[in-house]
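My current task is to audit a protein record that another person submitted. Please read both lines and tell me whether the tokens look consistent with the sequence. Do not assume that whoever made the record got everything right. I have pasted the whole thing underneath without changing anything:

===
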Amino acid sequence: MIYKYDGIGEKCPLPLINMRLLLKKMHVGDECIISINDVGSLNDIPKLLDKQGYQHSKKNLGNGTVEIRISI
């Protein structure tokens, strides 16, 4: 299953909290795609994903917006 979350315009910690809620729902083989543009979230979310061992990739969408794909 693919989960999507649009956090554009939301300030930290809201995108981080919502991402964590989605990660709890995910199972092996699922993917989560989040779009964010808050500077705090752009720093905090990848750090948390690295710390917890999630595989993820970032893609710059322009205008300060980044898409992060998380796989389990």
About this structure: The mean pLDDT is 96. The first strand starts at residue 2 and ends at 6. The two ends are 11 Å apart (CA to CA).
